[in-house]
Amino acid sequence: MLKDDLPKIITDKLPGPKASLVIENRKKYIPNAIGCVYPIVIKRAEGAIVEDIDGNKFLDFIGGVGVLNIGYSHPEVIEVVKEQSEKYFHAMFNTMTHEGYVNLAKKLCSIAPVRGNDKKAYFANSGAEADENAVKIAKAYTKRPNIIVFSGAFHGRTHYTMAMTSKKAYAKGMGPLADGVFRAKFPYYYRTPKDIKEEDYLDYYMSSIYDVFEECADPSTIAAIVVEPLQGEGGFIPAPIEWVKAVRALCDKYGILLIADEVQSGICRTGRMYCTDYWKDEGIEPDILTSAKSIAAGIPLSAIIASKEIMDSVEPGVIGGTFGGNPLACSAALKVIEIMERDNYEKRSKEIGEIVRKRYKEMQDKYDVIGDVRGIGAMIGIEFVKDKKTKEPAPELTKRIILECANNGLLVEGAGTYNNVIRFLAPLVITNEQLYAGLDIIENVIKACIK
């Protein structure tokens, strides 16, 4: 079966002849701005393996950028979507109720680690929509106009979330952006200024939030602070728990809501159903949680979860939408969560993470171009530098490694403020044999690229 195969390139070059024709038409009819890094035209995929239309097989360490924790073409998910499709494709929840929406909301309210005994959830279509809706709810509840986000943050490409997102390459030519969005420093400990002592890291990063209060907006005007528990696009940087505790205390002091953006880190990616489950172990919970990407195995769906008190502060008509909570997506999401819980993918995520982290750390000891290895569970980043002492980023090397991995049958993707991080987001259904094969490819490519 395809899901058990190893990567294998059979064409003389990539893209192959059939893929080349499709890619030429892509260039002709699709906007250049969308871009495509990899010379692949997919034919079919199972588990963690993608086969292109020329017969090349690739091992996917990207997982649809965090969408395919359950893998490609999971047979149980396919079955429930087929079953639902034979009943009805669409039922707009603003006009009629369908059971899948209610059952999924009930399930998420039972597992999401957010504050409150009574919780409510509703659905949108993407991570950006979920994040924007979470802010709308926070503003409705607090009656305040502003929010705080962080350096390195990625929250989407809608007009409002472009303002929330740190890297302005994603908003080039789109200004003026939404106002009332202020930015503090995310605790990127690896790149903390050299003159700051390690014991002072926490104070250094917390002071940047107080700088926002002093220089941009009084805390009484801040509706929410939005945090990725483990930054994705910013470079796979975990939020240190001591910092999270301090942010939670600050929010409580000033009546600010804490929003956890779990779009990429959720659904067992970090070794727990949600990364904020680790927060809960430490007595910390966000007020609002957003979830998307892997929640429905690739069918567009996102979720916003908060307490009844917060949710019901919103005026009728302010939230909702035509496709949010689509019946096909809800059926897929319920099955994904069932499989994740039944087959203990929290444990599997941790196992995968241990294997990858161990191998990356060994590479870090061998190769001077690897500056840092970090992450939680099976969400791991490896940061490339020109020099370990200066930590000068190596974006050109990183790009070469990504392209050469693809030429050798492995799909990896970049990240990071300086475009010098490679992220690990392989489907959690990956076999150990495939995992080791992929890690061998990465190491061999690194060695070839630094000769």
Structural description of this entry:
There is one protein chain. With 451 residues, the chain is an alpha/beta fold. The protein folds into two domains: 165 residues, Aspartate Aminotransferase, domain 1 (Alpha-Beta Complex), CATH 3.90.1150.10; 264 residues, Type I PLP-dependent aspartate aminotransferase-like (Major domain) (Aspartate Aminotransferase, domain 2). It is built from 14 helices and 17 strands. The chain has a seven-stranded mixed sheet with strand order 4-12-11-10-7-5-6, with helices on both faces. A four-stranded mixed sheet has the order 1-2-3-15. The protein has a four-stranded antiparallel sheet with strand order 13-14-17-16, covered by helices on one side. Strand 2 and strand 3 form a beta hairpin. Helix 12 runs parallel beside helix 14 and helix 13 crosses helix 14.
